[in-house]
Amino acid sequence: MTLGKVWPRPDGSEKSVFGGITGVIRRQEKIAVVGVNGAGKSTFLKVLAGQAEPSTGSMNLGANVYPGYFSQHAMDILDPRKTVLETLQDSMPTAHLGTLRNLCAAFLFQGDDIYKRIDKLSGGEKSRVVLATMLVQPINLLILDEPTNHLDIQSRETLLAALQNFTGTVVLVSHDRHFLRCLINRVFEIDHGEMRIYNGNYEYYLEKSGREHRAA
Q1: pLDDT for the residue 203
Q2: What b-and-e string marks burial along 101-128, b requiring 16 or more CB atoms within 10 Å of the CB?
Q3: Which CATH architecture has domain 2-66+140-209?
Q4: Cβ atoms within 10 Å of 48's Cβ, excluding its own
Q5: What does 2-13 look like in DSSP terms, one character per residue?
Q6: CA 193 to chain centre
């Protein structure tokens, strides 16, 4: 990929979000996209997921790459009138009830919780439903923007375990350092419109960038 992105300003000028980003994302990598607030991390994920067009350059997905995108507004796609079970049934129409119950349990919906309507769920519960529906799809590239927002500790650990066992590629933005330390093997840092690539885990990034005492 070689990417650049600008947003138009109200006065007709343009704001450069990032430019000249080049790199290759390889199979089974777990990549964190980091940078200060406003650096363009979410915009980069949108371009990567095909939700926004790059202003310059292009991105080529490899053969048989099937992306899934979780944004901070992902819960909006859920049908509020359906239950947790019905929502997962829609994602796995041929699955047996036992399989669906096991999937619900894996994402901490047990007993009568599976019959809760979406509009009765908390933000964290809705996030878990969306993530569960994604992880049962034939997706091998997960693009996740702040997936741990709204999640309690148990839910974060559940998601972390699922992503550690996920055999595809993960590209994510998260401020959860524990999450990043346990999952990541490569870091893309967006800084002043440019990208630096660190070919190591999150601790390697903190050491090499000199950011041990700064937030991701």
Answers
A1: 95
A2: bebbeebbbeeeebeeebeebeebbbbb
A3: 3-Layer(aba) Sandwich (3.40)
A4: 21
A5: EEEEEEE-TTS-
A6: 21
State the Cα–Cα distance between residues 80 and 117, nearest whole angstrom.
Answer: 7
What does the block give as tokens for 11? 């006065």
> For 133-154, what is the mean pLDDT?
91
> The tokens 């066992």 sit on which residue?
165
Closest-CA residue to 135 (of 182, 168, 94): 168
Q: How far is CA 38 from the centre of its chain?
A: 17
pTM assigned to the model: 0.86
What are 2-17's pLDDT values in tens digits? 677 777 778 887 777 7
Among the listed residues 83, 90, 114, 92, the one whose alpha carbon sits nearest the alpha carbon of residue 101: 114
